[in-house]
Batch of 2 targets.
Target 1
Amino acid sequence: MNSLTHVHNGEDVGVPNQKLAMWLFLSSEVVFFAVLISIYLFYKSAFHSLQITPSDIFDIPFTSVSSFILLMSSLTMVLSQNHYEREDISKTRIWIYTTGFLGLLFISGQIYEYTIFINEGLTISSSIFGTAFYFVTGFHGLHVFIGIMLLFVTGMQIHIEDTNSKFGLSLDSLALYWHCVDIVWIVIFTIIYLIP
Amino acid sequence: MKEIIHPIPKDQTKYYVNIAILLAGITFFEVYLYYTPKWNIPILLIFLSLIKFSIVVGYFMHLKYENKLIKLFYFIGFLLSIPWLIILFFERGLL
C-alpha cells in the first residue's frame, strides 16, 4: 500500500468521525457557556437598580428539584443507550420518551420560575444582572428545548430494523449532547443559585 | 470454522441507578451547605459541582471507556478550567 493512501473507514484516529465531531462540538458548547458564566460573574453584583437581591427571589428548593429532574434525565438517557445495546427496542423507546418528558418538566419549571421573577421585577432589561442571568439560563433552556425535539424525533424514528451501528452512533451522539446540557446545568446551578 | 458469537451487553440498570443516587446525594448535600452559613463556602460548592460534572462525564458520557484522544481533550479542558475559575473567583472577591 502506498504511504499516501488514506483509509476511509470513518475511524482514522480510532474514534468514529461522527463521535469525534460531536465531542469537538460539545467542547465548543462548554467554552460558549464558560464565557456566558464569566460574564454573569462580572455582573453578579450589578442589581443596584432592583429593590431586591437575587437571593431574595431565588427559590432554592424549587430549583433543586428542577436540577434533580435534569440529573435523572441523564440517567434515563444512559438507560436508553444500554437497552439499545441489548437490542431491546421497546425499552429504548420508553427511556428516550421518559428523557424527553423529564426535559419538558425542567423547561416548564424554568418558565414558571421566569414568571415569578418577572412579577418580582427581575426582567432582562431591569439591570445588567438581569440581562446576564436571563442570557445564561435562557441559552441553557434553548439547548434543553433543542434536545427535547431531537429526543422525540429519535423516539419516533427508532424501529426494530434500526439496530445498526449508524443509528447507534446517532443515539450515542444525542446522548452526549443531552449529558452535556446536564453538566452545564450542574455548573450553572452552583455558580448562579448556590453561591451567595 | 469458528462461529463468532456477539455477547449481549449486560443490563446495567442497577449500576447506573447507583451512580444517579450518588449524584442526587451530592446535590442534596450542596443544598444543605447553602442553608448552613458556616459551610456555604464558594470553593467547596465548586469542588462538589466539579465532582458531579466528572461523574456525569466519566460514567454517563462513557469517557472512562473512551479513546485516549477524547480523554486528552477532556483533561486539557478540565485542567485549564481550574485556574480560570480560581482567577475569576479571586477577582470577584468570592474567594
Note: Chain B touches chain A through 43 residues (CB under 8 Å).
Target 2
Amino acid sequence: MDSYFDLLSVLILLSSFILVSHKRIKSYIKTFRIQSALIALTAGIMGFHSLASEGSLDILLVCAIIILLKVIYIPRLLHKTYGNVEYKVEKDFFLNIPLLIIICCALVVFTYFSVSGISSLSADHINLQVVNSFSVILIGFFFMISRKKALGQMIGFLVIENGIFVTAMFSTHGMPFIVDIGIFIDMITAILIMGIMVVQINEKFESININKLRNLKG
Amino acid sequence: MNWFAPDYLLYGSMITYLAAAIAAIIFYKHPHLCTQSAQAGCILASVLGAASAVRLLLSGQEKIILKPFESTIPYVSVSMTMDALSAFFLLILSVLTLCVSIYSIGYTAHYHGKRNVSLFHFLYSTFILSMLLVFTADNAVFFFMAWEIMAVLSYFLVVFESEQEENRQAGLLYIVMTHLGTAFLMIAFMLMFYYTETFDLSASSQHIPETGRNLMFLFFLIGFSTKAGVIPLHIWLPYAHPAAPGNISALMSGIMIKTAVYGLLRFVFLYLGVETPWWGAVILVIGMSSAVFGVLYAFIEQNIKKLLAYSSIENMGIIFIGLGIAFLAFARENHWVGALALTASLLHCFNHSLFKGGLFLGVGSIHYATHTKNMEKLGGLIKRMPVTAVFFLGSALSISALVPFNGFIGEWLTYQSIFASISSGNAALNIAYIVSVAVLALSGALAAACFIKLFGISFLGLPRSDHAAYAKEVPLAMNLGSGILAFLCLLFGLLPLIPLNLLSRVIASITGNGVVGQLQGGFLAAWYPLKISGNNNAVSPLLIFVSILLLAALALAMLRILGGSRRERKYGTWDCGFGSLTPRMQYSGTAFSKPMKIVFKIFFQSSRDLKLQGDHPYHPESMEYTITTESVFEKYIYIPLLVWVTAWSKRVKLMIQTGSVHTYLLYIFVAVLVLMLYNRIG
C-alpha cells in the first residue's frame, strides 16, 4: 500500500519537474493533465482502500470530482483561453531551463530539510510522500514566478493547489469531504476569474505578458 | 446585601453610562429628549461613581474586585479593580462629569436640528465610560483596550464639527500622536509579558532585570507623556482642544490627559517600583520644560481655547514636577518627602480638573454666545454675561494660584515638597531642585499674567466686534455647570483638608504612610494653619481670605473717611477733542503679550513687519503691521522629522512596490521559504 503511494508521490513530483522544463503553453496544459490524472489515481487507490476498510465513499467521490474537474474540464478551459489569446510565440521565461531545474532540485532538498523537522509527521522515518508533495507546492509557486505569460501563472496556481491537495491527502489519509468540496469550489472560481482576466489583459496590452502590467503603476 | 457598597455603586455607574448611551440612540429623532435623557443618565452615573469612590476611600477597604464575566480568550480578562488610587481618579472623573453634563444640557442645545445630537451623546457617554474603565482595569490587555477605545472615541469627538478643515487636521494630528504613544505602550506591555509571562498588574515585577526596567520605564514615559501632552510631545494638544466642542475640551483637558498621570503611577510607580533616581530626574526635567514653555506659548496666544490648551500643558508640567520630585525622593529612600510630593501632584491633578474644566466650560459659553474664539473680537462681556464672567473669574483666579482658591494649595504643597527635598549633599540635585523652584515661580507668575490677559481682554473694556456687542447670557444649565466647578474651587481652597484627607488615604495605600496626619489641622478645621511638620512653613487659606476681606473693608472705610462725600460722576473719557474713541483704540491681546514676546524672542522666533503706503512716512495713506510667531518645537523637531519620514517613505515605496507581479510573487515565495527555515531551526 505505502509503496504505491511512494511511487505515485515521486511520479507527481516528476510531473512538476517536467512542467518546469517545458517551453510551450500547450505542453504545460498537457503536463498538468497528467499530474491531475496521477492525483486522481492516488485518490482512487486511497478511496478503494477506505471503502474496503471503513465502507466510506467520500474519497472515491473526491476522486471522481478530480477527474471531472482537473483532468477534463479545466484543461479544456485552458485550451480555450489559450486559443483566444495566443497568436505569437515569444520567450516565456526569465532564466534558462537547466537553471530552473537545478533551482527546483534545491527546493526539494530544502523541503526535505524543513519538513523532516516536524516530528508528528515522521515518527520513525522521514515521511517522503509529504516531502515530495510539499515540493510540488514550492515548485508550482516557483513556476509562477519564472513564467512571464499569464497562462503560466494560472497553471502554476493549479499546481500549487494540486500540491496542497496531495500534501493534505498524504498527511491525513483523507480530509473531511466538506473541506475538499470547498477547496474545489474556490479553485474553479479562481480559474474562471483568471480566464476572464487573461482575455482582458490580452485586449488591453495585446499580449499576455504580465510584465507589461508595470505600466499600470501610478 | 448592602446596595450601597462601593462595588454595587460602581456597577450601577457603569450601567447608567451605558443606559445613557443607549438612550441617546433610542431618542435620535427627538433632539431635546435625547440631550436630556443622555445627560441626565450621565449625571446620575457620575453621582453613583463619585459615591462609590468616596465610600471606598472612607471605608478603609483596600480594594474591590469586579469581574462581570469570564473571558475565554487567552490573556484577556474583563476584570476591574478599584483600589484607592483608582478611586481617587474615579472621583475626579465623576465630579467633572457631573458638572460638564449639567453644562451640556444647555450647551448641546445649539446642535439641535443642525447636527446629529444622538451621535454626540452616544460618543460622550461612552467616552466617559472608557475613561472609567482605564482607571479600573487591572490587567494590561484590558487597560490597553480601554485606552484605545478612549483614544478613538475622543478622536471622533474632536472631529465632531468636521466640516471645518482645521478641525479635521487637528483630529488627524491627534490620532497620529496618540497612536504613536499607544505604540510605545504596546512595546512596554510586550516587554512586561516577555519578562513575567503575565499581563496581571498585581503580579510581581521582581524578575525583570535592570535593563528591562529601564526600557519599560522609557516606553511607558513616552507613551503616557504623549497623552499628557507634555513638551516635547505636546503638539497635538493645542490643536485638538480648540477643535473639540466646549464640553469635550473640558473633559479632555480636565481628566483625559490625567489618565497619563494615573498610568505612570500605576505602571511605573506601583508595578515597576522606583529604585533608580534618574527616572525622577527625567520626569522632573520634562515637567519643568512643559511648565515654562506651556505658559509662554499660552501667553502669546489670541485664540482663547488654544490659550487654555497651552495652559493645560503648563499645568501638566507642574503635575510632572511633583511626580518627578516624588520619584526622586522614593528612589533616594526619602519616603516622607516622596509622599508629600505625590500628595501635591495628585492634589494638583484634582484642582486642575476643577478649574481647567471650569475655564473650558466658560470659554465654551463665550463661544456659544459670541461664535468666536478670537480674543481680539471680544471685550466687554462682563456687562452682557455677568454670571459667566464671575464664574470664569473664579476659575481664572484659581488657576493663577491666588489665595482663597484651590490652585494655590496644590502649588504651595509642590513648593513645600521641593523645599523639603533640598538637603545637604549631592549638589547637582540641589541645584536641580532650586532651578525647579525658580521654574515653578516663573510659570506661576506668567500664568497669572496670562489669565489677566484672557479675562481682561475678553470680559473688560468695550466690545471689539458685533459678536461681542450682541452677546447674551447663556442658559441656566450652562452657568450651573461652571458655577459648581468655581464653587468647588473656592470651597477646596478655603477648606483644603477635605480633598487632602481623601488623598491621604490614597497616598497611605500606595506608599505605606499618609501625610495628612503630619499636615496639621483637623478635618474641616481649616482655620488652623496647614502646617508641614519638620519645618515651619504654614499657611491658612481661610485666615488669609478673612484678612483680605478685612483689608478691603478697611480700605473702603478709609476711602470714605479720608475722601469725604465725593460724588461719583459717570461720563465719557476725554478724547482731547480729536474724535470719538472707538473700541479699536483699546489695549489688545497682542499688545499685552508684546513685552514677553520681546523678552523670550528666542522661543517665539517672532518677527514683525510694518508696511507703509503713501509718499511720506509721517503721513501714510495706510499702515499694515503683521506679527508672526513660530513654535520652536514644530519648526525644529516635528517638521524636519515629517519631511524626512515622507521622503524616506516615498523612496522605499518605489523600491518595494515595483509594479511587477513577479516581484510580488517573489516576496510571498521568499516569505514561505523563510517560514520553512524558521520551522526547522527556529
Note: The CA atoms of residues 191 and 197 of chain B lie 9 Å apart.
